[in-house]
Amino acid sequence: MIADLAAALGDEARRANERRALVLTGEREDCYVEAREALDGAGISRTATTLVAGGSGDELDCERITPKHADELLGRTRGAVVLDCHDECRPNAIGRTVGAVDGGGLLVLLVPPLDSWPDRRDEFDMTLAVPPYEPASVAGNFRQRLVDTLRAHRGIAIANVDSGTVECDGLTDPPPREQRSAPDLPDEHGFPRTTYEACLTPDQMATVHAFEDLREPDEALVVEADRGRGKSSAAGLAAGALAADGKDVLVTAPAYRSAAPIFERARELLATLDGLADVDQDETPHRLGAIGGGEVRFAKPAVATEQAERADLLVVDEAAALPVDRLTEFLAAPAVAFVTTVHGYEGAGRGFSVRFRDRLDDSAFTVHEQRLDDPIRYDAGDPVEVWAFRALLLDARPPVVPLVEGATPETVDYARLNSEELLADEHRLREAFGLLVAAHYRTEPNDLARLLDAPNVSVHALLSEGHVVSVALLAREGGLSADLRHEVYEGNRLKGHLLPDVLTSQLRDERAGVPTGQRVLRIATHPAARSRGLGSRLLDEIRANATTDWLGVGYGATPELVEFWRRNDFSTVYLATTRNERSGEHSALMLTPLSDAGRELRDRHARRFVERVGATLSDALAALDPDVVRAALGATHVTAEVNFSDHEWRVAASAAYGPGLAEIHPHVFRALALCHLTDADSDLSAREERLLVMRVLQTRSTEAVADALDYVSAGACMRALGDAYKPLVDRYGNRAAHDERDRYVDGGE
C-alpha cells in the first residue's frame, strides 16, 4: 500500500517538478518499516536520502543527522528527507528540512497518531518546561497546528501505519511541468559569457548582471528572495567572475554553512574559466584564489567588520539574520551586497527591510535592488512550500499600514493574548507573530512554538481597532528553590532564567533567584506607529498587571535601546565583557522593581555595577562605544560615590582650573567621571562626556581620543578635558576644592 502511494506521489512530483509530502502516523518502528517501502516505491536511492532523527542507528541505511544539526542541510538538495518527530518535534528542524528537498522529491514525516500527537510530550517540550514547570505543563498547541495544516493542505498524503489505512492520498493531478528555456544573455555584459550561461532563470541572470555595478566603489546591491530561488548561487557566480578579474571578494554570513553555495558556484566558475589558482585544502574551502590575483574568502561577521574596508567587495549572505548595528558596520566596505531570505528561519527579510534599509538609503552608496521570485529547485506553487509557510508562519506579516497608522497610546486597548485563543484566531496570530518577525533580526519557528506552548511565556499586546499594533513576549523567571539556587551558584547553568542565572553564577549573588520576575523576551511596535510611546504604554500595562517582584530585559546594548529602557525606569545591572559573535554588541541586563524585594535586588546590583564598572572600562570594555557607556551609566539609578580627602579635592580643582596634572592621580578623575556619568542631572555636552569615557575611564591614548572626537591636536584634547572637569569640581567639590578653584579664578581676575 505505502509503496504504491509513494510511487504515485513521486511520479506526480517529478511530472510537475514539485515536492510532495508523505505523513506516516503510528508507532515508531512501524513507521520506519513503511518509510523504507515508501523510498523504494518512489525510486529514491538511499544515497539521495537524509534521515533527520535523534539517537543513532541505521534504520534506513542512509545519511543521518540530528534535529539540532538540521542546519547542515542548508544549501544542499536531497531526493528525500525523512524527519522522525516521535522523540522530538523541533520547529526549526522542520523549516530546515523542507528547504532541502529537491523538485520531484519527497518529504517523509514520521509522527505519532495524529489525534493523540498534540497531547504527547517530547524532548523539545523539555526545553520549554523551565523550572519550576514540568513537561506536563507544556501545551500542545504548536503540534495541533501542524496536525490541522497537514490535513488541510494539498499535496500531503497521510497514511496510518497501525491501521493500514490512507487518510488522504495527497494527489493533486497537476499539469506536466513546462520545460524551462535558457534565459537570454544581457545585450551588454562585463562578466564572461560563461558566467551567464550558468544561470538557470531570468531572475538569477538579472541578479548576476546587477553585481557588475559593484566593480566600482560606492555601489550597493540588495538581493532578496525566498529559499530555493538561487540567490546564493547568483552571488557565487558573480564573486567568481569578480575574483577572475582580480578583485578581492570578502564573504560573510551568520555561519559558513549558509555561504557554502557561494563558494561552490565561485569555484565551479573559476575552474570553467581556467582561473582557479589555489584552494584551501578543505571540503568546504574558506578561500578561493584566482590566477589574476583576485580571491573569494570567508570571514565571520565580527572579523568581516575589521576587514571590510580593505576588500574590493563585501558580500553579506543571509543579511536579515544579523542585527542592524552589525549591518551598518559593513557600510565601511567600498562596495557591498546584502543577500537575504525574505521568508525563512534564518532571519526575516521583512525585518531587514524595515529596520536597516533607511540606514542604507541614507548612506553614500548608490543602492540597487534585485528580487528573485522564480524557484529553481521546484516550480512555483509547490504545495510543500505553501504548507511550510503556513504551518511555521514564515510569511507572517504585521497588519497593513492603513489599519494601524492612526494608533496612539490614547486610542489603543491592552490585551493579554491567550495561546489557545491565538491558535484559534489565525488572523491575530499572524499579526502578532508578524510584528515580531518584522522587528527582530532573528525570529525562528521555535519562537512560534514557544509563544504557543511554553508555560512560562505570556503574550501582551496593544490593539488598534482589533489589530495588533504592539506586542511583547515575557518569560517568568526567578522564584527558585534553595537547591536550584545553590546549583547555579556552584556553576550549573539554568536555562530559561537568564537574569537570575547571570546574577547568581557570574555576579555571585546566591539570593538573586529568590524574587520572582518577568523578562521581556521580545517587544515590537508596528513600523507605521513607532516613536509615539506605544512601547512605553505597553510596558506600563504589563507593569500594572504584573504579580511579580521585578521586570527585566537582556539585549545587545546600543545607545538607542539603553535610552528606551531607561525612559521606562529600567536600571543597568550588568554589561557583558565580551561581544556577541554574531551581533558584535555587548549584552546588557536591566531591571525595574515591582515590589520591595524587587527594589532591593535592583538597588543591590545597580550599586555593585557602578562599583565594578570603572575597572572593566579600562580593561575588557576599553573598546566599547562611548555612547553605550554613557547610556548604561546614566541608567543606573545609583550615583557613584566620591569620598575624597581635602588633598584629593585640591588635586582635582588644580587640574581643572590650574596647573595640576590629572595623570598623577588618575583614581581621582575616574571617580569624578563616574560620579557625573551616573548622576541623573547632567551638565556636560555629549562630546565632553565621550571625552571622559574614552580618555579617563577607558584610558585610550590622547592622540586616539583627539582623532576620534575631532580635536585639532592632542593638546587641545587635554585642555578640553580640563575644561570638562570645571563644572564637576563646582558641583561635587567640597570647601577645599572650591578654595583651590578660587585661587586660580581670583588670580586670573
TrEMBL record:
<dbReference type="InterPro" id="IPR016181">
    <property type="entry name" value="Acyl_CoA_acyltransferase"/>
</dbReference>
<dbReference type="GO" id="GO:1990883">
    <property type="term" value="F:18S rRNA cytidine N-acetyltransferase activity"/>
</dbReference>
<dbReference type="GO" id="GO:0000049">
    <property type="term" value="F:tRNA binding"/>
</dbReference>
<feature type="domain" description="TcmA/NAT10 helicase">
    <location>
        <begin position="222"/>
        <end position="395"/>
    </location>
</feature>
<feature type="compositionally biased region" description="Basic and acidic residues">
    <location>
        <begin position="175"/>
        <end position="190"/>
    </location>
</feature>
<dbReference type="InterPro" id="IPR053477">
    <property type="entry name" value="tRNA_Cytidine_AcTrnsfr"/>
</dbReference>
<feature type="binding site">
    <location>
        <begin position="523"/>
        <end position="525"/>
    </location>
    <ligand>
        <name>acetyl-CoA</name>
    </ligand>
</feature>
<keyword id="KW-0820">tRNA-binding</keyword>
<dbReference type="GO" id="GO:0005737">
    <property type="term" value="C:cytoplasm"/>
</dbReference>
<feature type="binding site">
    <location>
        <position position="567"/>
    </location>
    <ligand>
        <name>acetyl-CoA</name>
    </ligand>
</feature>
<feature type="domain" description="TmcA/NAT10 N-terminal">
    <location>
        <begin position="7"/>
        <end position="159"/>
    </location>
</feature>
<keyword id="KW-0547">Nucleotide-binding</keyword>
<keyword id="KW-0963">Cytoplasm</keyword>
<dbReference type="InterPro" id="IPR007807">
    <property type="entry name" value="TcmA/NAT10_helicase"/>
</dbReference>
<dbReference type="Pfam" id="PF08351">
    <property type="entry name" value="TmcA_N"/>
</dbReference>
<feature type="domain" description="N-acetyltransferase">
    <location>
        <begin position="433"/>
        <end position="543"/>
    </location>
</feature>
<dbReference type="InterPro" id="IPR024914">
    <property type="entry name" value="tRNA_acetyltr_TmcA"/>
</dbReference>
<dbReference type="GO" id="GO:0051392">
    <property type="term" value="F:tRNA cytidine N4-acetyltransferase activity"/>
</dbReference>
<dbReference type="GO" id="GO:1904812">
    <property type="term" value="P:rRNA acetylation involved in maturation of SSU-rRNA"/>
</dbReference>
<dbReference type="InterPro" id="IPR000182">
    <property type="entry name" value="GNAT_dom"/>
</dbReference>
<keyword id="KW-0067">ATP-binding</keyword>
<comment type="function">
    <text>Catalyzes the formation of N(4)-acetylcytidine (ac(4)C) at the wobble position of tRNA(Met), by using acetyl-CoA as an acetyl donor and ATP (or GTP).</text>
</comment>
<dbReference type="InterPro" id="IPR032672">
    <property type="entry name" value="TmcA/NAT10/Kre33"/>
</dbReference>
<keyword id="KW-0012">Acyltransferase</keyword>
<dbReference type="GO" id="GO:0002101">
    <property type="term" value="P:tRNA wobble cytosine modification"/>
</dbReference>
<feature type="binding site">
    <location>
        <position position="560"/>
    </location>
    <ligand>
        <name>acetyl-CoA</name>
    </ligand>
</feature>
<dbReference type="GO" id="GO:0005524">
    <property type="term" value="F:ATP binding"/>
</dbReference>
<dbReference type="InterPro" id="IPR013562">
    <property type="entry name" value="TmcA/NAT10_N"/>
</dbReference>
<dbReference type="Pfam" id="PF13718">
    <property type="entry name" value="GNAT_acetyltr_2"/>
</dbReference>
<feature type="domain" description="N-acetyltransferase">
    <location>
        <begin position="546"/>
        <end position="594"/>
    </location>
</feature>
<protein>
    <recommendedName>
        <fullName>tRNA(Met) cytidine acetyltransferase TmcA</fullName>
        <ecNumber>2.3.1.193</ecNumber>
    </recommendedName>
</protein>
<comment type="similarity">
    <text>Belongs to the TmcA family.</text>
</comment>
<dbReference type="InterPro" id="IPR027417">
    <property type="entry name" value="P-loop_NTPase"/>
</dbReference>
<feature type="region of interest" description="Disordered">
    <location>
        <begin position="170"/>
        <end position="190"/>
    </location>
</feature>
<dbReference type="Pfam" id="PF05127">
    <property type="entry name" value="NAT10_TcmA_helicase"/>
</dbReference>
<dbReference type="GO" id="GO:0051391">
    <property type="term" value="P:tRNA acetylation"/>
</dbReference>
<keyword id="KW-0694">RNA-binding</keyword>
<feature type="binding site">
    <location>
        <position position="204"/>
    </location>
    <ligand>
        <name>ATP</name>
    </ligand>
</feature>
<feature type="binding site">
    <location>
        <position position="377"/>
    </location>
    <ligand>
        <name>ATP</name>
    </ligand>
</feature>
<keyword id="KW-0819">tRNA processing</keyword>
<keyword id="KW-0808">Transferase</keyword>
